[in-house]
Specification:
The chain is of the alpha/beta class and 408 residues long. It contains 13 helices and 15 strands. Bound molecules: (2S)-amino(hydroxy)ethanoic acid and manganese (II) ion (3 copies).
């Protein structure tokens, strides 16, 4: 059923290709509510309004673009526009652009959501999917579902000390009302997220598209290591309590513990020394840990093991170390019935498990949810090397339209 792609996705992505480029890191840095992400939100709203969709931004900062008057049992598709620092062009925006292009495609086929007995269709953009600014991944979908306490979310602070509530208010949403939105959630009949694959699965399978099987459970923790800040030149080596030395040992133990645990993945991608001077022994080091495993109990055991080794390293260096859990996302399966429907509507599409987290994973326990992955020829993501061939990007619009037409 997939018609010749109308090259809308590549055209749409071309419109935002210069938004949030990061000259220093390469790729894109589009933290939530940054100028870049706000520009992308405006781009999406304008594109949706040009298509006659009714657009609103809710108190959680989620943008909804409606096609059709009915709100009950709606079909919703979308993704996110925020990025990791130095991220790729497709992680998030591909799903948003494909949703816009799929609306064009449906209309070209004479399919009008919300008319002729068809359900309404909503396109959504979720804020802070990457958790790059406020530390909690999928903050928008966690707020929608109530998976995060509203007050905790309001008081999350970014590196400059802005709270999520302050930035929400500064961008036109009243933080007094953010939080679980049971009413909006109840209106969603099914949610579909199309996303660039963030690995090599589809390259190896030789397919442009896959239906998601599951999402790997994952979590984020923060180590805070405290030592004795001091002068780099006047402090003898024997007199030091240097938290950077403990941090270095934690990074190595993360690799060792995870490499020894089948199917585990663990990463330290961010370390923040205080004060961070070349000629200064740090007084404190904050270090963030990302651990993933199909079995949530094993994830916890891996973290525990790393924590034990961190405590020994800290004691040996005369430092102290504390560990705080920042967010947990249990391993998520998708609605089997919807998954079967997606495979029926996309004949030959393989099933692919995702090592990456997504808003669809947060929604999955609350409503029938499915995901589609589009081939990434480099298999690299969260990096400027993330890629999607134009032909696959445009094909995605037709494939998503096939799915939406079949479900509407
Ligand atoms: O971190 C993740 O897995 C996702 O890309 N936010
Ligand atoms: Mn993503
Ligand atoms: Mn991502
Ligand atoms: Mn000095």
């Amino acid at each position: 059923m997939t018609s010749e792609p109308a090259n809308t996705v590549t055209t749409l992505l071309g419109e935002i290709a210069d938004v949030g480029r990061d000259a220093q890191r390469g790729g894109y840095s589009r933290p939530v509510y940054s100028t870049a992400e706000l520009d992308l939100r405006s781009w999406f709203i304008a594109a949706a309004e040009r298509r006659g969709l009714e657009v609103l931004t809710d108190p959680n900062g989620i943008i909804w673009a409606w096609c059709g008057p009915e709100r009950d049992d709606s079909l919703v598709t979308g993704s996110h526009l925020d990025s990791v620092p130095g991220g790729g062009a497709f992680d998030g925006p591909l799903g948003v652009a494909a949703a816009l292009a799929a609306v064009d495609e449906l209309r070209a086929r004479g399919v009008q959501p919300g008319q002729d007995g068809k359900r309404s269709l909503a396109l959504t953009v979720f804020p802070e999917e990457e958790g790059s600014r406020f530390g909690i991944a999928c903050l928008g979908s966690r707020l929608l579902t109530g998976a995060i306490d509203a007050d905790k979310a309001r008081n999350l602070r970014d590196a400059e000390g802005n709270t999520f509530a302050e930035l929400s208010a500064r961008n036109g949403v009243d933080p007094a009302y953010l939080g679980a939105d049971a009413d909006s959630l109840a209106h969603i009949g099914q949610f579909i997220e199309l996303h660039v694959e963030q690995g090599r699965g589809l390259i190896d399978m030789g397919s442009p598209i896959a239906v998601a099987g599951s999402i790997l459970g994952h979590g984020r923790w923060k180590f805070t290591i405290s030592g004795q800040g001091n002068h780099a030149g006047t402090t003898l080596m024997v007199d030091r309590a240097d938290p950077m030395v403990v941090a270095a040992q934690i990074v190595l133990s993360v690799r060792k513990v995870a490499a020894a645990q089948e199917d585990a993945r663990a990463t330290v991608g961010r370390i923040q020394p205080t004060p961070g001077g070349t000629n200064v022994i740090a007084s404190k080091v904050e270090l963030w840990l990302d651990v993933r495993h199909p079995d949530d109990a094993v994830t916890a055991a891996v973290v525990e093991k790393i924590h034990g080794q961190a405590q020994i390293a800290a004691a040996n260096e005369g430092c102290t170390v504390t560990l705080t859990e920042e967010s947990l996302s249990p391993t998520t399966g998708f609605d089997a019935g919807l998954q079967a429907e997606l495979r029926r509507l996309l004949p030959g599409a393989p099933v692919l498990d995702s090592g990456a987290g997504h808003d669809a994973g947060v929604l999955a326990p609350y409503l029938p949810t499915g995901m589609l992955f589009i081939r990434n020829p480099t298999g690299v993501s969260h990096s400027p090397e993330e890629a999607v061939e134009n032909s696959d990007a445009d094909y995605a619009a037709g494939a998503l339209a096939d799915v939406l037409e079949g479900l509407l």
